[in-house]
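Help wanted!
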Amino acid sequence: MKNTFGSSVSVTIFGESHGTMIGAVLDGLAPGITVDESFIAHQMSLRRSVGTISTARREADNVRIVSGVFNGKTTGTPITFIIENQDAHSKDYGELAYKARPGHADFTALMKYHGFQDFRGGGHFSGRITAGLVAAGAVAISALREKNIHIGTHILSCAGINDRGFADLPADIAALGDKSFAVLDDDIREKMISAINDARQQGDSVGGVLETAVIGLPAGVGEPWFDTLEGMLAHMMFSIPAVKGIEFGAGFALAEKKGSEANDTFFLDAGNVFTRTNNCGGILGGISDGMPVIFRTAVKPTPSIFKEQQTVDMRTMENTSLVIKGRHDPAIIHRARVVADSAAALVLCDQLALRFGTDLIAENRKDD
Amino acid sequence: MKNTFGSSVSVTIFGESHGTMIGAVLDGLAPGITVDESFIAHQMSLRRSVGTISTARREADNVRIVSGVFNGKTTGTPITFIIENQDAHSKDYGELAYKARPGHADFTALMKYHGFQDFRGGGHFSGRITAGLVAAGAVAISALREKNIHIGTHILSCAGINDRGFADLPADIAALGDKSFAVLDDDIREKMISAINDARQQGDSVGGVLETAVIGLPAGVGEPWFDTLEGMLAHMMFSIPAVKGIEFGAGFALAEKKGSEANDTFFLDAGNVFTRTNNCGGILGGISDGMPVIFRTAVKPTPSIFKEQQTVDMRTMENTSLVIKGRHDPAIIHRARVVADSAAALVLCDQLALRFGTDLIAENRKDD
Amino acid sequence: MKNTFGSSVSVTIFGESHGTMIGAVLDGLAPGITVDESFIAHQMSLRRSVGTISTARREADNVRIVSGVFNGKTTGTPITFIIENQDAHSKDYGELAYKARPGHADFTALMKYHGFQDFRGGGHFSGRITAGLVAAGAVAISALREKNIHIGTHILSCAGINDRGFADLPADIAALGDKSFAVLDDDIREKMISAINDARQQGDSVGGVLETAVIGLPAGVGEPWFDTLEGMLAHMMFSIPAVKGIEFGAGFALAEKKGSEANDTFFLDAGNVFTRTNNCGGILGGISDGMPVIFRTAVKPTPSIFKEQQTVDMRTMENTSLVIKGRHDPAIIHRARVVADSAAALVLCDQLALRFGTDLIAENRKDD
Amino acid sequence: MKNTFGSSVSVTIFGESHGTMIGAVLDGLAPGITVDESFIAHQMSLRRSVGTISTARREADNVRIVSGVFNGKTTGTPITFIIENQDAHSKDYGELAYKARPGHADFTALMKYHGFQDFRGGGHFSGRITAGLVAAGAVAISALREKNIHIGTHILSCAGINDRGFADLPADIAALGDKSFAVLDDDIREKMISAINDARQQGDSVGGVLETAVIGLPAGVGEPWFDTLEGMLAHMMFSIPAVKGIEFGAGFALAEKKGSEANDTFFLDAGNVFTRTNNCGGILGGISDGMPVIFRTAVKPTPSIFKEQQTVDMRTMENTSLVIKGRHDPAIIHRARVVADSAAALVLCDQLALRFGTDLIAENRKDD
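Answered by r_m:
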């Protein structure tokens, strides 16, 4: 499949940047999960552009749920989210029909779709399509919360400026939920925003690293081969536009460690097994060990910059240059973090349903 | 699915470290591909342990193909590879039935399989299971070569010692094919091996980073969302035991760059489109752009070390310690590189078949 | 997956009978296929209720395409069809929240969704959901026509009255395309309609058998095991509500034949291989043989009848009876036939893309 | 995928009639299921040829389990079954490399595999490949029994002679388990065998209808669309060579009934919901209703007959005739029934794991 991900719980996304609607179909989620539209709206607001560090495009991003919710709860059948595109300025994009923007998918789209792709604003490749993922993810996040599983992502670094790492995970995750610019160290916020604004003023852009933590995931989820928990999360995370790397636990730093430093030793506390360190990021042999799942994703700088760039005119097949106009983000990392939360939640709902069945939430209910 | 990966071309792996047989079923590959058993044997030898830097376990790893090959060529139906386990010393592992080795999957296997798992030598979690992947991958590599697609992996770093990066890719890939310890800079080889031996003598282990390059992949392969080329490769690569990170092109380093530095500008040469740099690793918008696909995988140090480690006795649920005995690798990175080539080849065969149909090779034949 | 079908070309359906919207996402279809909205409207009209033999519910069934079509042609990315529900009378259904209608999915929905399902009008189980399938199928049918593959379904029998069988397939299929009540023998039409009306007047309902033919499908499509062409078509066809059987070629009648009668002998005509008979329904070993693919599906009588029926009150867990009110079809077979065409087209587009790649239509274009 | 079926529990089959080995990989089954090798051998014996009514080819069909079973129980990781081919007479098949046997897959295999297929004895299309399915199915059947789910198939008709229908299902299913020629009415056995022998003496063959019943399946299994229980079972059943039709419950006969006759009314007995009739075959809206699942499959007569048949020489592309030699079955229906049981068991294990999670059996164990 192409725009569908997941096996027991799956999400299908659709739409183009300047099309009529974008959206998502979330299927397979347990029945009986409370759907909180204000939480969805909140999550959408975290993804939306803010202030001068984001695109001037302003979309209300009102999410309509047109199926799969009845009396405020999931039915167990497909939940469809639609979002109308409103503030699309297609005239800005004329030249881009044939001049491939460096760092964008214009050229590869042409190679794959032979010129039939909707090139306006990046079409189906636009980061805007993640709005559907965030809407679906909001319901997935709600479902996980009912099982005491919580996810949080912060901007570990941006433009060379570093946030502090995770410390008290429950508190850190809770605090991140309401931040429109998600750093753990509030003192660092203005520095990062200032660096983003500097890049914007230079007609340039910056990237960064996101760090995501999942707490409460039970041990025993994931597969030893192929559908490892790392593999499933990575598979999904590379769908977030601009993500070019992912690492779990100590990740690439493990390559420099000795085994005696890297191994997380086990110990008992009140009858439960824990590890003293978490270099493995909560996953051993592809399977969750009950410790927090930790991963970092590398986000490249936004490819839409306003400097003149060399490229090829695909009509005439001649070397040329282009200057991108329109409205663009000098950074997307602060918007991508809620996409990371959402994407992770969708993967985990699927993994939990595969492991424990489709009644997960219903079982919870019986205990009430 | 669990031990099956791929859609049009798929691979299923099976077996345990100390079981009767391990192997793989490779399905969906085009008919008419020449199967060169000596090339398979060569690839198996690259995976096998060598000298003092690898486990003392010695397996002949004779691969028998028991289906799917007729008159020396693939039939188009499932190709089954079986490898008998011979040199298994199960008695070495008794204590490990209940003492979880740090860094290993013993604890997570128990959480998932409730004690029914074959714990001997890591059972189904053992790196030994990659032998089936290498056998299947050898045929996939052969299939890709018929389409002028070539894959090579070198040890970019090990124990803190760095190899040079890729330079002349066709020559570098060709040179790597025969190296039992795959570094591009031959002067670095002995230094790395020496560092591995040092770790061994300390009862410790080391990790490293593999770098893989694919040349000849046509533009237009991969999907914009979910089944991005990065996502598919990452999904598979995390199946290689000990891999904890992956990055494409400039990867995590992109997080520190400006857009103007990160964007790969396009130019024409003899009617073909190229990029001047390859920070994106040959993939834009999830789709190949015709440039080399480049990725790096982080390999953690082997968790089997010979120092005393803290752990939990899962029978008595008491804190305890263990000292691992048996035969183990102080490093696996030199063995993992052929697994990386194989795994990548399997992903690419699947992607090509999805994109261009199951007759890929048959079409080639018509041109002869 | 649950509401998604297909691998390279897939369809996802969503919605409930009395919800806000129903629809479908069609993904993976080749770029460059002309999307004819008037043809989609025509196909929708064939599915819609007509005259006294269908439900009094009247829906305009205006299909909006909100993604995946650009300048009148498919882009290659997901095509989303949405249809607003308008004429829903939810108050008719109150009692059905707890009294399971015999022959309907009310009871099984309760067992699966624990009371959270939208029970109004059958909710997600309603035949109305096939509207999305018909919209998606219309584009699939158009795509197949560009490859000279044509599909037609007629009502082989209804209420014990038989239509003639297929004879001149290209002419028969062409003639069926415009018929709102699809019989090949026009003299039989009024008899069937009269029998349906008789059932209606008795508060009862009737079923029938649909026969579908596909011409132009090349030989070599399908798999020997599991994803046989019969298996894939059957898998899909049982999604059409009320279908309880399927047979290919001579089907169940083959069970009574000798091998010498059943075997279809091969012969050459103008360099092409044909079979003299087509008892196998165009499929041997799971793979198309180039002859017409022929299958028949058994459609049970509409379960909504107006006679008093015994059932169980699921609130009080007592035996009770119910009399269904509301608007219902005394027969659905005349409406189901366009669903059969659509469903078959979706399966075939997927099979063709898997076999020949995702550029099928694009390749066509190059020949122009 | 091609030779893999199932999602949470999957089976992969491999091999050719005259190849080295055939077999299957069964993956995803819960850990802790007792594997009874004598039961597997018993099931294999039911599939094997017997007496004069079956092929003279005699295979011991010794099944070796080479992975996934430890201390006599499933581990939860892939279980691999291999069976060596012993009694293959490849020289019998020379002419069949280019003369397509009517009713066989020789022609379609050529269209798909371009001459690279292993044509000997039907190669990968041979009914012999079902041996792997029966081996895997035996373990699936054992797993279902631990959950009190039982499956039985009888020969409802063969050569125009009818068995009685199912009556006391638990007793009937139990009785069928040991019958090498599975009819419920023992008086009918000799008549059917005699009719098969008559066909054999005429160099001809016969088909029949199998009827399968499943008891104990809980209500609430299956999906409303696409992955309906009928659709999943049908998808799988068409993999049994020679199956050309399937119907559930009253099946095609429903097409002739009125709704008031077809609807199965609900009633309570001791707090449980039942239906008075079972015209729907235990499935409503694609989901099990807790009543027995009943289906019938049409099996065409064996295509290997010994009469002269018209065909095409694919080398010279000329019309010709052929007379099949070698060893063949005048009927396969008595051998196919254990394949039907096995195939159904594999589908149900997958559906149950998807619905209730992968620990199904482990949960059972906790109750002990």
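OP: Thanks! One thing I noticed: Residues 151 and 246 of chain D are 17 Å apart (CA to CA).
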